[in-house]
């Protein structure tokens, strides 16, 4: 069964020298940083940043991260990180694809899962806060799930 995509977002970056090894290939650990930058840009576009999440009383730790390296990113390569929100009611699950901007070829795929944790009690929430669900549903790119 194909996942429903509730929202999509893309952002572009150029691989800087400090992210590559001696072979001019981006070090594997830096890919996570690009997922984070894309996710923060998306949240900024939604007007529901990590600052807002904290103000609402919740932390959103990553509880699962998956990456599959298809082809290496290289020094000065321009890339695009495409993200798709595939779950938002019980957690925030995002799928990512990093592509070469010039050719459109896939470089890396990944996903992250975040859960809401009440800051005052430290308790994990089994449903995301209503403020988060409202913000995503109000997002200009929100795609409601069709009625079955």
TrEMBL record:
Pfam family for this entry, one: 4HBT_2
Name of protein: Acyl-CoA thioesterase
UniProt family annotation: Belongs to the 4-hydroxybenzoyl-CoA thioesterase family.
Organism of derivation: Pasteurella oralis
Enzyme Commission numbers on file: 3.1.2.-
Classification of source organism: Bacteria, Pseudomonadati, Pseudomonadota, Gammaproteobacteria, Pasteurellales
Signal sequence interval, chain numbering: none
Keywords from the named record: Hydrolase
InterPro entries assigned to the protein according to its UniProt record, in alphabetical order: 4-hydroxybenzoyl-CoA_TE (IPR050563), HotDog_dom_sf (IPR029069)
Source superkingdom: Bacteria
Recorded GO MF terms: hydrolase activity
């Amino acid at each position: 069964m194909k996942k429903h995509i509730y929202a999509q977002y893309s952002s572009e970056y150029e691989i800087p020298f400090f992210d590559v090894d001696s072979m001019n290939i981006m070090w594997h650990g830096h890919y996570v940083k690009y997922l984070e930058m894309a996710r923060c840009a998306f949240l900024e576009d939604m007007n529901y940043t990590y600052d807002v999440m904290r103000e609402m009383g919740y932390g959103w730790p990553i509880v699962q991260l998956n990456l599959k390296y298809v082809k290496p990113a290289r020094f000065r390569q321009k890339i695009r990180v495409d993200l798709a929100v595939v779950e938002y009611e019980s957690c925030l699950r995002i799928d990512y694809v990093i592509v070469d901007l010039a050719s459109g070829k896939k470089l890396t795929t990944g996903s992250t899962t975040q859960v809401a944790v009440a800051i005052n009690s430290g308790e994990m929430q089994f449903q995301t806060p209503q403020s988060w669900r409202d913000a995503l549903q109000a997002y200009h790119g929100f795609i409601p799930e069709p009625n079955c």
